[in-house]
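Hi,

I'm pasting everything inline rather than attaching a file, because the server keeps stripping attachments. The sequence lines come first, and each chain or strand is labelled.
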Amino acid sequence: DRITVAVAANFLTTARDISAAYSAETGHEVALVHGSTGKLFAQIVAGAPFDLFLSADAARPARLAESGRLADGLPPRTYAIGRLSLVHGDKTEPGTLEEILSRPDLRIAVADPAVAPYGGAARDVLRTFRQDGWDRGLLRGESVGQAFAFVATGNADAGLVALAQALTFDREIWAMEVPETLHEPILQDAVLLKRAGDNDAARAFLDFLGRPIATEIMAAAGYRIPP
Amino acid sequence: MTLWGPIWLTLQLAGLTMVLLLALATPIAWWLANTRARIKPAIEALTALPLVLPPTVLGFYLLILMSPESPVGAFWVTLTGEALTFSFSGLVFASIFYSLPFAVQPLQTAFQSIGRGMMEAAATLGASRWDAFRSVALPLARRGVLTAAVLSFAHTVGEFGVVLMVGGNIPGRTRVISIEIYSAVETLDYRTAHVLSGGLLVFSFVVLTLVYVMNRRGVRAGV
Amino acid sequence: MTLWGPIWLTLQLAGLTMVLLLALATPIAWWLANTRARIKPAIEALTALPLVLPPTVLGFYLLILMSPESPVGAFWVTLTGEALTFSFSGLVFASIFYSLPFAVQPLQTAFQSIGRGMMEAAATLGASRWDAFRSVALPLARRGVLTAAVLSFAHTVGEFGVVLMVGGNIPGRTRVISIEIYSAVETLDYRTAHVLSGGLLVFSFVVLTLVYVMNRRGVRAGV
Amino acid sequence: MSDQLEFDISLRFAGFELEAAAEVPLNGITALSGPSGSGKTTLLRAIAGLEPQAQGHVRFAGEDWNGLAPEARGVGYVFQDARLFPHLDVAGNLDYGARRRGTPRGLVDAVIDALDLGPLLHRAPATLSGGETRRVALGRALASGPRILLMDEPLTGLDRARKSRLMPYIARAVAGFGVPALYVTHSAVEIGFLADRTLSIAEGKLQGWSGAGPRLLGQVTDAVPGQVCLAIGRRAVWLQGHGEVGEIWALPLGQDYLAASEPPGLCNAALTIEALVMQAEHGTGTCDLDVEGQQISIGWHREDGVLPEPGARLWLSLPRLLARPIQVNREAYESNLT
Amino acid sequence: MSDQLEFDISLRFAGFELEAAAEVPLNGITALSGPSGSGKTTLLRAIAGLEPQAQGHVRFAGEDWNGLAPEARGVGYVFQDARLFPHLDVAGNLDYGARRRGTPRGLVDAVIDALDLGPLLHRAPATLSGGETRRVALGRALASGPRILLMDEPLTGLDRARKSRLMPYIARAVAGFGVPALYVTHSAVEIGFLADRTLSIAEGKLQGWSGAGPRLLGQVTDAVPGQVCLAIGRRAVWLQGHGEVGEIWALPLGQDYLAASEPPGLCNAALTIEALVMQAEHGTGTCDLDVEGQQISIGWHREDGVLPEPGARLWLSLPRLLARPIQVNREAYESNLT
Ligand SMILES: Nc1ncnc2c1ncn2[C@@H]1O[C@H](COP(=O)(O)OP(=O)(O)OP(=O)(O)O)[C@@H](O)[C@H]1O
Ligand SMILES: Nc1ncnc2c1ncn2[C@@H]1O[C@H](COP(=O)(O)OP(=O)(O)OP(=O)(O)O)[C@@H](O)[C@H]1O
Ligand SMILES: [Mg+2]
Ligand SMILES: [Mg+2]
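And the predicted assembly:
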């Protein structure tokens, strides 16, 4: 069988590894469709032929549940918890988290808080270290991917991005983990969509996300696994 | 990751869009170039409108318009049996809509500079309107046709906001090369992005240069 | 959320881009229309190339090109004291680059259809090349100028991929209306999206219609 | 009547109004003449169907042309401003109408021959000289095998030698194929040589007809390549032209002959011929003559108003001879072409 | 020499080669004449600087024109195909060169007057008739106040009445302002009337000079509006034209006069004048005459080769009179304009 999984862009590389493992085990084919969470949501509402939706937040899966677009009896389920990291353009020790974030002259890239969950988390962190004008000199990318690109191309001094990105980036970059206590948790929820109600392969994939083989991949990629 | 799928799909999409767009835009541009109707300026403005909306937003509205729950989408379903959204047909439809200004406007510019005299001469030589259009107006407007073709082809190759929204980025069905490059950038796979972008640029450059060289040949031969 | 900032910024960006683009594209198009140089087809192809890259990807490369670490970006910093990226100047720069084809190609089409005879007549009447260009070629190509202006203005209003990437979406400095609409769609705030899109469409429609009506007046008066 | 072109056309521009009604016989060449801006081109365009705003009717040989598309009227139009197709070479321009109207290849070749277009066939219109352009425009209309020729100053801008070669050719095409022509011209020479009748127009109104200018008819009694011998009564005159024995030719007096009451003696005239004054009218300033048995009528305008007496003899001295066929063996002509 | 236009130009197109060297006096009107496609337009263009590929040199009154941009040469060019600016109305077209060269308003108004352009001033070129277009093109060049006029068939396509009004006007502009003109034409009438000398060209090669056609000079002894009285020796002739007493006018014989050994008696000629044969040459077929004390030379071509004897008398009968000023009071002329 072949299933189509809509996946938030920041989780795409990890999802590729997981679906490879899933296919190897079950023989089912997985087609990954990626995009920003907002776009994928709009497409699902418009009847996109997706079986599963791996969102980057919890809000949109909840909206889908409210409007009755999920397969019966399967509420949204958190498959991973995103972790934030601070990246910096200088490869030598640039300072502690507080030192870097409280410097007003640094240009810090984040994902647009209005659009992306990692952006919201980054906002929480910045508010902690900067009492007023937390968004001074802030650069907003459409997604964490763009925020990361700002740093990687040398246009931003630092960025609050996904830990997963810092780990997968194929060049060396200075990065440090941001304590999770500094922001609301970035819950990433998965849902089974209505059209896949009786698609066993899709259900199996959802279960597979909780199996150790998948959770190990996620953990290695920089996500925390929900209890 | 096999790239031939997206590349092939992109060429198909851009080629088909270009051809259909020329077929659609030519009568519109001809009409606009020759009419004295009062509403002409409004129609001219309309043909430029798809440009002012951000592609994703345009895609969003096209998604609503084309969804099987809307009259247009439903009509398409009864016609063909499949939904317009998330299909290749839907992509073509959306691309045509989005690139319409790039086809209509250069064609209109070209048609307007021909002048009525040539068409009159053709008529007195026994050519019907349609014949004269084909044998006189079109060849004389060839530079405009070329511009329209190049702009709409290239724009379809490069645009992905609309395509991503309407097509849903489904491998083998609606995933085009621009989305592939976009994904590479998004997932920090910059090396792939460089390779793909470089390839696309070189390929496009070669194709366009050939097109323009051939265009020049044509002019020299005076045909 | 106050919208006047983004709206004003959009108008400034699109207007400035249009003006600069016309200033830049006109000599290029004029040269292309008149040269017999061998490399003409290659240059023609080059002017269409910015189109084939997805806007975000183009933005990514412009980001690299314009970053203070690159020669171009560094030069700009020494020149003006501030970085090109994430500034209004950077947006203008990027928009010009991205919309170049829409300005060059219609202008070239229009210039090519003028013919050398008119320029010769102007020269024998004492007009220098530049004078003849201004007083004869430009007015005769006015339809092409209009098309170039409309396409580049509208495209700058609607395009946000490049703008978002190069501008960094900084409120008051680089956040334009298209990003605002895009965010509304992304955050499921569809009501705001509808209002903004509707407003933008109506506004653009009115402006464009006025432009075309005025264009027609001009033609009638035979000026 | 079915063998005429009837029209009654009115058309208004800002500052100009055309009101023209006439019946033009569908044979020979009808000149349309009048000052610049008098509406000649406009009238021709309306007849060809190129002025959709024109009111009134046009009827060709009994066929109603109202509302008929220009391409269906079968006219051959020589535009005042040539209007060659710039994207086709000369051959392409000539073939354009020929192909669409199915003209036999032989006719096209004959046109190319007569107009000397051979060396130009593969040239682009933009590289042609002014006169070459006009010749191609004329050729294109002739090659389209029309039912009626509408010619707007077709020979303007051609040199005298070329003109004197083309005028007989046009005359031959009209006489040989029976294709009538409406011919706009400012040139008295062309009117004198070509026109079987002249329709005058001024300020948008037709001013009435005048017949052919004074001319003598003769029969070809001998012909060698490039020359024919015309018998006019007892006189035989050799002149340039291509023709066949038995054809009827006209020898127009032209504008600049001298009519004198005394024989010129030794002079530089190409031909001097004697005439007898039959009648002379003060009012109209015309003089009816008998020349070798033919009645012709010439204008006689002197400041002092003195006219020759009836019965007096006049000597007509022609500075040059230009003659054209008006009646030819059509079958022979056509078989020559194919 | 400084008062002449010297050129030595060579230029090659596929299938055509121009090789032309001459020295043209910078006074009066020099006609350039030759068959269609002989290179007249090409030569004019090269002189104006419009053919960048032309090899060789052009020198105007001692001034080197090589490499000089066309707009700096100060020529007034009347294009064979008019080339009015379609985006300007007639007034705009006339002003275009006038404004750039700083022509006094008076001259522009005089041009408008003479060419009857008043009613057309606010018309778009696309709505003009063929003849109107040519008049505007001529006016535009005249109004630009040039140092030399290069005119490519400027009067082609105009009716005879208009032509006979414009030719004297051109003659007057040339004589009055001392602006020399190089004048391409096919028309023998125009050459006869306007040309002070003629340069012939054929197949891209200059064929040499010929002087003005035979003409009689006279002095204006009386003038009323529209008519002048010219004294030619003992003869006084009234003819049409505007002039002032004291001016020198030329009366060309034209092409179609009759020269006869007997007086015509009562005839339709506009003027008959007696001449005495001084000399007649078989070789060249010319006849030198003394007419009212002026020596002129006419061509004499008869099939039978018979020439009049020296000492014989000839009567020259002119079918029409067209005369033009060749020497006028320049100050009076200019003060009239401003
Ligand atoms: N751009 C060109 N390319 C090739 N041949 C050309 C070009 N321009 C002119 N010619 C040729 O050069 C010759 C001379 O042309 P030109 O226009 O000077 O003739 P002309 O004497 O003015 O003739 P006309 O009286 O017909 O205007 C013609 O045979 C013409 O076809
Ligand atoms: N589209 C138009 N709009 C306004 N006036 C026009 C238009 N077309 C022609 N005219 C005017 O109508 C009159 C007749 O024009 P037309 O072209 O028929 O003259 P014509 O007799 O052919 O003159 P010519 O001998 O100069 O070619 C002219 O005064 C001309 O200016
Ligand atoms: Mg006309
Ligand atoms: Mg010429």
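Residues D 40-41, 80, 152; E 129-130 surround magnesium ion (ligand 3) (CB under 6 Å).

If the labels don't parse on your end, tell me and I'll reformat.
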